[in-house]
Amino acid sequence: MARRAAGLWALGPLLWGCALALRGGMLYPRESPSRERKELGGLWKFRADFSENRRQGFEQQWYRAPLRESGPTLDMPVPSSFNDVGQDGRLRGFVGWVWYEREAVLPQRWTQDTHTRVVLRIGSAHYHAIVWVNGVHVAEHEGGHLPFEVDISKLVQARLTVQTAAGDVSDFYLLPVGIRTVAVTKNQFLINGKPFYFRGVNKHEDADIRGKGFDWPLLMKDLNLLRWLGANAFRTSHYPYAEEVMQLCDQYGVVVIDESPGVGIVLSQSYNNQSLQHHLEVMEELVRRDKNHPAVVMWSVANEPASSLGPAGYYFKTLIAHTKALDPSRPVTFVTNSKYDADLGAPYVDVICVNSYFSWYHDFGHLEVIQLQLATQFENWYKTYQKPIIQSEYGADAISGFHHDPPLMFSEEYQKSLLEQYHLVLDQKRKEYVVGELIWNFADFMTDQSTFRVLGNKKGIFTRQRQPKGAAFLLRERYWKLANETGCHPPAEKPQCLGKSHCTW
Ligand SMILES: *[C@@H]1O[C@H](CO)[C@@H](O)[C@H](O)[C@H]1NC(C)=O
Ligand SMILES: *[C@@H]1O[C@H](CO)[C@@H](O)[C@H](O)[C@H]1NC(C)=O
Hints:
Belongs to the glycosyl hydrolase 2 family. Residues 38-158 form the Glycosyl hydrolases family 2 sugar binding domain. It comes from Pipistrellus kuhlii (Kuhl's pipistrelle). By secondary structure, this protein is α/β, with parallel strands linked by helices. The protein folds into two domains: 7-156, Jelly Rolls (Sandwich), CATH 2.60.120; 206-486, Alpha-Beta Barrel (TIM Barrel), CATH 3.20.20. It is 27% helix and 20% strand. The strands form five sheets. Strands 13-14-15-16-17-18-19-20 form an eight-stranded parallel beta barrel, surrounded by four helices. It has a four-stranded antiparallel β-sheet with strand order 2-1-6-9, covered by helices on one side. Helix 10 (370-385) packs parallel to helix 11 (412-429). The longest helix has 18 residues, at 273-290. The chain is globular. The chain starts with 12 loop residues before the first strand and ends in a 19-residue tail after the last helix. The model is unreliable at 1-12 and 492-505 (pLDDT under 50). The structure holds 2-acetamido-2-deoxy-beta-D-glucopyranose (2 copies). One 2-acetamido-2-deoxy-beta-D-glucopyranose (NAG) binds next to loops. The site of one 2-acetamido-2-deoxy-beta-D-glucopyranose has 5 residues, from loops.
């Protein structure tokens, strides 16, 4: 392999503080009473050098200042292969120098106790790596796969004397904040006083092998796909997502409807007061955890409860009032699939979020019923409540690679045609009171088995492996058109300048 090829990185770096001098072999960093470790995995700033000779980074000395000052950077998960995370074809096959940067805050003891040895260890970096710490060249290593390390005690200890001159503060906590307002009128959803239209998806924390487990490369892939799609929002169906997800949504300006795990409240006894008490506590925990995330613009207390059952009225009245008391600054909703004239919870929500599966769970194959049924659905809800409406779920299963014309259920063509029928009505009603649409679902996901599941739920516009079906291209065209129409491009288009109040979407 060429000397300067830094094509694939699988970096597993960590910092390593210990009181003993290491000589000879290379031990795997293990904690002990005399040794501490600090993992440096997670999101790094990243920039590929696309210049003709791939040497611009050296010529301009990108290592001397924060990488973002050199030009646009991406967030790149470490460890991972940069080629596989994004939607940028140029990175897919990139060969040449790429730059990674990570700021690390070291424990005070490491930097103040000059007997502590601080070692930076890179588990693996393909192929040829050069390492700078605070702008100082500290190591160079050729060949991937194998670890290398360097003693950086002098560098980090010298620097600290300057930094701790600040005073007597004994505890530090950094909390990035963003400022924005959210309000609801009878037919609009306002963010910072401007009408906002949710061009969104419903997600699941789900992927092959990983299941629900949090994974940085998967999260970055999903955010990159949302940007590709032109989406500006998602709902955390049907439970709160990992905090790292929320943090990145703040940074990228992705709007979140934050949903509690209140899914499947379908039996009369589910509405007993003991359940309600628990639900109130869950909302307290959720609000306490997520209230500082500007990305969160609305709480959803439940998904598809049997809200036409007798005790539902008292239950949702209490639950929604409690959530509003916890956080008076955000609207509260729950996602319904009950009938407009039977829903006992709807009087208490700020926004009507309604799910429907016309021409999927009934009227199989009859795409022609959608326009009438959907328009009637919207009109009935609006006439009854005069509240803005979000189509919070709609969709059809499609098995990637199944084709049929005329469109038949489970073919990619059927999924696309069903979406098109929905969009015709959404385009009329969004001029009046419909304030958003969330496709079910972003990606295929695993479920329990049954006669209507084909190795899981196949309503994703992406497969479980995050590859697009035909419907993804349809939705992409639509979302970008809507973005162009409103002059509100997905802010994730410029991730390096986000997270501030100027992002009004
Ligand atoms: C829950 O408690 C309230 C207030 O005491 C009461 O009115 C209501 O009937 C109870 N609900 C159920 C389902 O027991
Ligand atoms: C949106 O606008 C951009 C820039 O003007 C243009 O390149 C793109 O084709 C437009 N997309 C759609 C779907 O209208």
